[in-house]
Structures are given as structure tokens and as C-alpha cells.
């Protein structure tokens, strides 16, 4: 048999060659080679076109070259599609057990073909990833050794991303507005970034004129990535500190004073490198109590998490002398506005 379509793409760092065969009866127009008349996954294709028309225009106006164009908008097409310059990252969410495996595979094939056709992206620039629910830091485990990076622009900050080697790319796209706000708030302030990942928030704070930055993460790999991000933006010097530590253990013993603190902890973690498990719902008040000790008298904490049904314990916060305001809606960029539950974001300060 001869393949009707052939695609080259990447599954993580694994190079794949996909061939599509039609075994059903085809129309005379298709046999004659006029396959452009056939719309692949029409519902998905139409939604993708609609999203691109709106989000692409917004991204260009904002000066962004990395953004999301689809996020499980249609239940039967359960993926996220992200643009990174001239590349696409397609993340397949784990299908419900009620969906037959063959059905899920067929839909994924349709998604890949439709995404390529609608966006015009070269098949060699398509990266496919399967995302499942993970605990702790397992979402950061390395998938391969390809070490292929690129630099993207986010509101004037140059940030390094890696589309192939990890489940995540090194940049959480849903927090682009949060990071911009941190940059706007950072002028002349001592900034602390906990659970810092690759330090993108630190870059924005430094570019915004922070007097000093302290970046804390348990992974040396991501701290080195953070340093590279800072160097790329000309932010070097003794005023920028990097600490490899379990953030919770470090926080319990840390001293000093910070005017602006950003913390985006995992929803849950039971990493072997941590002394005890962490649950953001169960432990957020204890977390805030420790942060309060480091917060300057007129300082601000920006606290975010991705727990879908997270509920801030306002009464407990008041008891320890803090007040909180939910700013989640104001931190959702247009490319994530369809998913209201992607993150929670709060501004916390000393109770007046």
C-alpha cells in the first residue's frame, strides 16, 4: 500500500515517521489528488482557526512569540496546543478510561494532521508529549538527552525554553501576566522567588529594577537554567543570589527581609528529597506564617497555585496578621482565559 500522507515529527526527543493510509472507499476528487477538499477533524480544525485568529492577533500586539492556541476546548479533542515561534508543542492529556485506546489514538492522529494543516507549521517542528497526573517533582524528570533549546520573547524578557527534553518546556505560559506584574512591582525592592523553576519570574523582577533577587529551588539543573536566563538578559552581579534547597526547609530557617515575594508551589509533593509531604490546601497557612516572618512591613506576597478547588483560609490568615485579595482573573492571559481554573493567584500583605 502507498501512504496518502507522510509526516515527520518528534515525540519528546524521539523522531517519528507517521504514515497515513486510507482503506475506505474514496471519492473521485480524492483519487484525482484533490485532497485539500477534505477537512481533517472539522470541529477541531474550525475551533483552532477561530482561536488563532483571535489569539494570534493579540499575541502580536503584546509582543509575544510563545502562547497557547488550544486547551481541551472540545472534550473529544483533549490536548493543549502551544506555539513557540515556528514550532508547535502538542500535549495530550490522559484520556478517560471510558475512551477506547484505538479511538484516542485516532483522535490524536487527526489532531496532529489538523494542527499542521491549519497552522502551516513544518512537520519537523511539531513536538508531541503525553501529560498525565504527576506527583511532586516528577513533572520535571528528564525525558531525553537532546538538549535542544531556543530563546523566546515575553514582554521584553528573553527566556530559554527546551521543547524536547522535559515534559514542561521551562516556561509556564499561563503566568506571563503574573510575571509582567511582578516586573512592574519590583522597582527598588528586594525580591524573593521560591519554587523558582527556571527563574523566569526573577528575570522579570530584575528587568523591572529590583534592588536584589534571591532565587530558591531544589533542583540544581533549574537553578543553572535560571542563571542562564538572567545572563541572557544582562542581569549579573552579587545582588542576584541562587540557593539550592528544599524551599520549605529553607523557609522555616531563613532570615532576612524581602519587599516582594513570589511563591508558586506544587499542588502536592512527596519527593524523596523532602523531609515531609506538602499539600498546598492543607499547608498554605503554615506557609504564609513562615513567609510573614520574612516580609517587610509594607511588603507584598504574590501567591499562586494550580489546585482546581483551592480555598484560601481567610480566617486563619487574619489570625496570623495577614490579608489576601484574589487577583486570579487579572492574571489570566487571553490564551488561557478559556480555562478559568488553570491557576489561582493572590496578593497577600500585612493586615493594617
From TrEMBL:
Keywords (A to Z) from UniProt: Methyltransferase, rRNA processing, S-adenosyl-L-methionine, Transferase
Entry-linked Pfam families: Methyltrans_SAM
InterPro entries: SAM-dep_methyl-trfase, SAM-dependent_MTases_sf
Limits of the S-adenosylmethionine-dependent methyltransferase domain: 79-314
Protein name: 23S rRNA (Guanine-N-2-) -methyltransferase rlmL
